[in-house]
Amino acid sequence: MLRRTFLTGSLTTVAVGALHPGAAHAEVAAVDDDFLAVLTKANQAQIPLVLANYRNAGDSVRTVARKARRLVSGYVWGRSSYHHDPALLEPLEWLIDQLVVRQHSDGLYDVGNLHSPPDSAFAIQDVCMLYALLDADGQSASAALRERLASVVKKAGPALASGGVHTPNHRWEVSAALARAHHLFPDRRYAARIDDWLDEGIDATPDGIYSERSSTYAAEVTNPCLLTIAWLRNKPGLLEYVRRNLDVTLYLLEPNGEVDTTASRRQDQKGVREVWWYLTQFRELALHSRDGRFATVAKGIEARGTGELGDFLAEVLERPSLAAKLPVSVPAPADFVRHYPSQASVRVRRGARTATVFGGTDFWDLPVISSGLSTNPTFFKLRNGAAILDSVRLSPQFFSTGHFRSAGLRVTGKTFRLASEVKVPYHLPLPKRHRRADGQYALTPDGRFYASMDFGHRPKQYRSLRTSITVAEVSDGFDLTFDFAGDATAYAIELCFRPGGTLAGVDTLDAVGNYQLGAGTGSYTVGSDRISFGPGNGTARVAMDPGERYTYLGGNLTPDGLRVYLTGRTPGRQVLQFRVS
């Protein structure tokens, strides 16, 4: 349980043995007051925002619980300007009342999904922290609030211990919530359910990448939940999974604090993710493994000061050992070529210049577009300081089969090869033994669409297009060589630059944000950072075709940013050069 001295703000040393499940003894370490100051200031900035809109009827129960967590953190923390401020009690009472009245009779909540154990677990983790913090604080003014929080946890526990999940990370979220509930209100069912989920094995590859390949879920769910279970259930083996994942993250980091998400199987495969979500994970593993690289990342997050850092105050109040001074910093990797076979990706960094090569979509194993699959058609990214090329994509005009997506990645030194072959059938008459007089044939897939044609039994004639892209690192950038074989058709290459810079050498097209490089070399500049690209290969207009899987329902895959198009025709070769300065 918590230490009262820490809650009063008078702490000067901490016992870091609590970071090591099963540790024989604890080591005393000095407190990192600069770290505590960052969290305190961030939390104090959050509280007025909560007070201004805590009665928002549209908030999910997870948002309600997180708002309450922010208020409780300030209320119990002796160094906060909100310490034991009675003005926080009425808002807390309202928020906690919402946690009570929205809870179903079975102990679960609706959070998008109905009666959802995993979504409830997200909220219950915060509820457990609320109770633990207020209980350790021991103020009579919060006694009634603690009783209501305890009732929520006790009501939810059996449902979490018997309910199911949807995704891999949900197992660890439910288990962490049960670990917290069991720590506060022991119940053998909770411990048994945690062991059931853990017995399935942690879904991590040897190189440290979880099966969802998502920075969002690693940072917000899997890593913190595994650390919570390791701590509360004395499972030291779980720490190694987190350490390996943080080691991978070192090589996915961009110089500005973003994390590359190209290979993700979740929503962040098409978005931007920032490293601040990993703050306490990097701090805990730096303290546990004495890894100075992790310390560097943690201190960088503090110095950058972006994100909701105040949310971490509750974790540190709960586990004072997280506030220990970090080991001596060692520079994080900044000059490397790193290959991750499990997701067919390569990361290259040369100081402020980084690149991602990606050939690991799930499209070639499961040729569908669906949540939980990696379908991002971006195969190359490049950064030169503030000049950011967020995406390079290729789309041939080939029977509306859509973007090029590589069937894997081959690495040879500083050369990376992506390749695919698309074959589209024309269907011939059915053999006589499969013909039906009534014409009622099975509804079957052609590969692009469905029809009552019994496609599986028909002989076929194929049209094909083979595409190979070789990415080669050179001294001042990268060369991308496109080789096409097969049928003659047109194609478009799309370069999407992050907004905020200036394009030169390109022609404006009709749509906002669309440009074309017909000849020569173009450039994109932000401040003193530049990426040049070219040469252009002609002025023909060729649309980017996202494929029938998208257009049938009116979807598209147009990325946000400044889009420059280069065009050409197959078969043949085109070399696209990127240079940085």
Structure report:
The protein is α+β, with helices and mostly antiparallel strands and 581 residues long. The chain has two domains: 4-323, Glycosyltransferase, CATH 1.50.10; 335-428 and 462-580, Beta-galactosidase, Chain A, domain 5, CATH 2.70.98. The chain has helices at 4-7, 33-53, 61-76, 89-101, 117-137, 143-162, 168-184, 188-199, 215-233, 238-252, 279-289, 292-304, 313-318, 548-551; strands spanning 13-15, 28-30, 109-111, 113-116, 258-259, 273-274, 335-340, 345-350, 353-358, 380-384, 387-396, 410-412, 415-427, 443-445, 450-452, 460-474, 477-497, 502-504, 507-508, 514-516, 522-526, 529-534, 562-580. Helix 3 (61-76) packs antiparallel against helix 4 (89-101) and helix 3 packs parallel to helix 5 (117-137). The model has no long low-confidence stretch (mean pLDDT 95). It comes from Kribbella solani. InterPro entries: Chondroitin_lyas. This is Alginate lyase domain-containing protein. Keywords: Signal.
